[in-house]
Design brief:
By secondary structure, the protein is of the alpha/beta class. It contains eleven helices and twelve strands.
């Protein structure tokens, strides 16, 4: 019987960071989440190392028992060197050598890839994409990105930027995206971009019905959850914006189907959080954007790992690297 292979994972998100300890078989032994809104990496990095030590101690493990750790990072990033460079949804994280820092702090070998790729690997190894040869996972939360498994391999691209579907321009000269381009898919369907749009459009409208769905009734607190609740309640502004967002998502999924012809597209947060209220309109619009043949071949489903994917993402990234190298 093979000895258990233990792995650590760090999932760097726009609002949260997940730290998980588990096995190559997908058993999560320990996991934590900490806040990452308006945080300085100089303060966060020591905290990540300390939590990792605490998790190892709680599982009666030491650094020598851990084969590797994986970091799931927002893009853009310097993947070969393990540096978070300039992520649009993490304004305080600029040129952060996180892989080197954690390797030195923990005395464990590190692996590093973008968040969508690591989430795709997590769903492929342990979740809704298990057994697929061709699948795509989309992060659908603060921002939007895709991790692509093609013919059983992770597609990374020449400069490790494959899968940045969130920054495909779907409306030329459209809304300014946080990445700097205009008209990006993410600018019309990403959680942070939708919140910014609502706040811009409704500032000064103190009696607008949308404010009933904002924390403390403040326009600056409108977010994606506010939009969902207001759309479910039939607020005209929200119904129209929700429908526009679903249409944009269907457009993107259709492009991915026609380009990559996957067996499955697995969707992150919004798909399982909103359920059929999101999935039904998206599936209604999909035939407008995908050939019947590619549409019939592809299941579009919510994440199976759901909110726990942050515990698996970094672990899955490390597992993939170790498997490529023949270590596992």
């Amino acid at each position: 019987m093979r000895k258990k292979a233990y792995l650590l994972g760090f999932d760097i998100g726009g609002t949260k960071i997940g730290i998980g300890l588990g096995t190559a078989e997908g058993e999560i032994l320990q996991s934590r989440r900490i806040d990452n809104q308006n945080t300085n990496p100089d303060k966060v990095l020591p905290q990540l190392a300390e939590i990792a030590r605490q998790e190892m101690a709680a599982a009666n493990l030491s650094s020598s028992d851990i084969l590797a750790f994986g970091i799931s990072t927002p893009s853009p990033a310097d993947i070969p060197n393990g540096v978070i460079t300039n992520p649009p949804n993490n304004p305080y994280w600029r040129n952060v050598p996180i892989k080197k820092y954690l390797e030195e702090a923990l005395s464990i070998r590190g692996c590093f890839d973008n968040d969508a790729n690591c989430a795709a690997l997590a769903e492929w190894y342990f979740g809704a994409g298990k057994g697929c040869k061709n699948m795509i996972y989309l992060t659908m939360s603060t921002g939007i990105g895709a991790g692509i498994i093609a013919d059983g391999r992770l597609l990374q691209g020449t400069t490790f930027l494959a899968g940045e579907i969130g920054h495909a321009v779907i409306k030329p000269n459209g809304r300014r995206c946080n990445c700097g381009l205009k008209g990006c898919y993410e600018a019309y369907a990403g959680g942070r971009a939708l919140a910014q749009r609502m706040q811009e459009e409704l500032t000064g409208q103190t009696n607008h019905a949308m404010l009933d769905f904002a924390t403390d009734g403040k326009v600056e607190n409108l977010d994606l959850l506010s939009l969902e609740k207001a759309a479910r309640a039939g607020v005209d502004y929200a119904v129209k914006l929700w429908d526009e967002m679903c249409l944009c998502n269907a457009q993107a999924y259709g492009m991915l189907m026609n380009i990559f012809n996957p067996e499955k597209i697995v969707l992150g947060t919004i798909a399982y959080a909103a359920g059929d209220f999101f999935m039904d309109p998206v599936k209604k619009y999909l035939p407008d954007f995908a050939w019947p043949e590619t549409l019939a071949a592809c299941d579009v489903v919510p994440s199976q790992l759901k909110r726990e994917i942050g515990s698996y993402a970094g672990i899955a990234g490390a597992l993939y690297e170790l498997e490529k190298e023949g270590v596992l």
